[in-house]
Amino acid sequence: xxxxxPRLPEVRAVPGVRVRARGWGWRHAGRRAxxxxxxxxxxxxxxxxxxxxxxxxxxxTLMGGLAGLLGGEDExxxxxxxTLDDRLPHxxxxxxxxxxxxxxxxxxxxxxxxxxxxxxxxxxxPREEIWVRVxxxxxxxxxxxxxxxxxxxxxxxxxxxxxxxxxxxxxxGLLLLDEPTANLDPHGVDEVRxxxxxxxxxxxxxxxxxxxxxxxxxxxxxxxxxxxxGTIAADGPLDEVLRDQGGQLRAAGIWxxxxxxxxxxxAHARMTMQPAAAGPTAAGSDAVVLSGRDLTIGYEQSRPVxxxxxxxxxxxxxxxxxxxxxxGKSTLALTLVGLLPQLAGQVRVAEDLAPAPGRTDPHxxxxxxxxxRVSMVFQEPEYQFxxxxxxxxxxxxPRAAGTPAEETATQVDRFLRLLALDDVALANPMTxxxxxxxxxxxxxxxxxxxxxxxxxxxxxxxxxxxxxxxxGILRDAVTRGTTIVSITHxxxxxxxxxGHVIDLAxxxxxxxxxxxxxxxxxxxxxxxxDDPAPSGRVxxxxxxxxxxVPRTASSTPDAPGAARSxxxxxxxxxxxxxxxxxxxxxxxxxxxTPLMISIDVLSASIALVLELLLLPLVxxxxxxxxxxxxPLFVGAPLAALSMLLYASPGGxxxxxxxxxxxSENSVTLSVAILVRVLALGLPxxxxxxxxxxxxxxxxxxxxxxxxxxxxxxSLAGVRMAGLMVGDWQALRRARRVRGIGDGNRVAAFIAGAxxxxxxxxxxxxxxxxxxxxxxxxxxxxxxxARPSHVGVADLVMMMICVAVPVLALGAAVHWGVFQxxxx
Amino acid sequence: xxxxxxxxxxxxxxxxxxxxxxxACGVIFLVWNQVGGAAYxxxxxxxxxxxGLVAGIWLLGGVLGGLVIRKPGAAxxxxxxxxxxxxxxxxxxxxxxxxxxxxxxxxxxxxxxIFGYRKFNLPVAMLAGAGAGxxxxxxxxxxxxxxxxxxxxxxxxxxxxxxxxxxxxxxxLVGWLLVRGLAQTGALDRFAAGREIRGRV
Lengths: 823, 201
Prior knowledge:
Chain A is built from 27 helices and 19 strands. By secondary structure, chain A is α/β, with parallel strands linked by helices. In chain A, helix 4 (156-168) runs parallel beside helix 5 (186-203). Chain A is globular. Residues 1-9, 273-285 and 514-560 of chain A have low confidence and may be disordered. The model of chain B has no long low-confidence stretch (mean pLDDT 89). At the A-B interface, helix 18, helix 21, helix 22, helix 24 and helix 25 of A face helix 1, helix 3, helix 6 and helix 7 of B. Chain B: It holds the Pfam family ABC_cobalt. Chain B: It comes from bioreactor metagenome. Chain B: InterPro entries: ABC_thiamin-permease_prd.
């Protein structure tokens, strides 16, 4: 019952959008200066335009304006006019597709297919058509993965291609790409560029792309627009613009074609102008400052990333660690500096650097002991910032190391000057530009005069100007005797740093079954005709509760031995998975809420026994349940103890001390509480771990008819919970490396919570743009790509859930022990 | 629509930010379950009602939601989502986590409502925290896995005062300070809460 014939509608050619701006400008609320003004621009349908300009020149404001995302009157004021096919941009949103820089903030949903479908749903595209569009779009960007592939498992380049597919499925006539490759390694850049090229060929849409590396898009665009100081400074064919404006563009930080070679010479030429440095330290250049022996690295013992690594870092020189994605370069960096314990093997810092004789493993050092010895610069500078101003940020390390205030001040002044940060010394670090943040994060590491600094992708996404400054700073540090270790994909950087190079692929081996972490595993292309089971959840078969991860195991009812296998299936938890997640949740409510009425041992015990009997139906192993119940095993006795001591006394009093009274009543109540906490906690622990948030959201909207917007926003937020847990760990490491990781737990908690909120809010700002750009919040009826049903299984579950408290409380009433509030 | 036709209407960015705040608070609760949660249970068992002193962190969601978003329902939305997330990630209190979230969110929401969603200064923040604390006290008196009204009057009075104190300080004051700090990082530039503090830059 395939609805669509194979390969029916190729991604259709859509008429390109015509862009017209006359005297247009925009000023963000709360800003004195106009982000853009006096913009006059005509872009013909199907034209391809590259927008160049310094960071902060107003490129992203132009993109936001074109995408209709700048917001209403309380978010800023506008001048002149800007239209897409004679309509205001926010009214033409379904005609525009926007892909932005941050791969992480452009994934809305947890599963690949759902994410692509999201925009179509918001535009009210009929369900059958959505899945056709989803497949076409994924095919066009070359993402040949199952539709239920977790989006969290994608690489950066794949995520950006997914973003492109999600936009493409909306069939836009204007494609806006805002530095879509800035956060990607060279391989990812190629992937995204190739995908974009294919898409443009198929659709003929108008393209506006912002980029600071010209060569990525040079042969794809017809025309180039230069934005400087908030207005259009040049507009014409690319060659012409580069010829006339080349010098100015370089000064603005733009990478012109061929610059990745020229820039190395420029960096070296700059060095000769630096003051003569102190020269390498006495230890000699052959000495090893940091080494690893037979290292197995990874975040979890059960999931090692790489094993058998023997590595030596030479002292007082630059070492670049290169290699493909997924080899574990960042993991190795964290391991070497004592931020991530090795799973096996040994990390050793040169004996003369150890805080005490023999203590050569940096993992055993305190946070303060790391200062001045080893340091690390993270790929995302934001993780490392903990202060309110740039100045305080720089003072932090020296202060923690106990440097006298005067010396610290001199040092800080020197670094502020050296890194051209004096103008922003009093600004909040988080408000700096990308380049400034990067320079500051490097400075915070260098200011403590560490012997070894490890940097993770220091040049990622940097414009030309910052790139040159960084190379200058780092080369300068090397001549002063600091050991610089850089994880990098940037070939120009490796050449410019001019030191040792280690390819991680040459060290150790990959303990996972999959060897090299190649990009797309060879999966058969997704096609409508020979659709195998993995995409069965797509709407081909409306009878199947398609919200669920495909379950090919569910046999046909008439098969021989069906009854028996059905029971086995039920015991594996498959019965429960047929139940709509909303009903599972409501069942949980129905099962446990009534139990809260009475505090008595009998009803709680009956409920607990029934729950334990039902447990196999959930399909989760007893060991797992026990593990997840640990907090309960701690909480239940403590709650019981509190009741034992402070319950209203009744009957015989056994013991009294101050406000604590143990009486006949309190003993009975406390036993009841002990059982009751378990009876109330167990079902939630067993059921909730199996619920899929996306299915839940579908159910909440379609079955319970809750308003779609808050439900979907919550769903998008929940997808980020995993990222936030990762953030929490990264923030803890960053505090340790900054020398402030030794403080008490509560202070660390508050600081961690604050940093987590900062990161979360920055993501949410981007995510809300992504969602709005995909039509979220438009006032048109939404469709749902995945139907959510309730049926017989749901009824059965509900009846079982209601039966538990009815039996338990019924027994309590019958035997006269029913006690509301224990009275 | 993206245009806010009224001061109290939700924009997309309000909705998404509230959701992310809720999830972030859920993660924060989860960590606090380990740091403060253990302390709470132990203090509550060892002393009559002083466990409430560390409970304020669980009331943060409503205060943060109200202060940042400034729209009706924000306090409840953020606190409830935070509760759901911390329950789903594994909390020891089961479904009553969600009920607590609803009630605590309502407690904070009520205070913002009384001030007509116009005032978001320190006193209002602290009152909202206290509101959440009182609401939690009432709820935990009747409901939850171990209802307090089965305990002595002394216990309940002490618990009420500690819940108010913790609401004022750990939820109200801390929440207000967090929002100020967040605004200074530029993370709230799309919100009045952020622009007021940053001024024109």
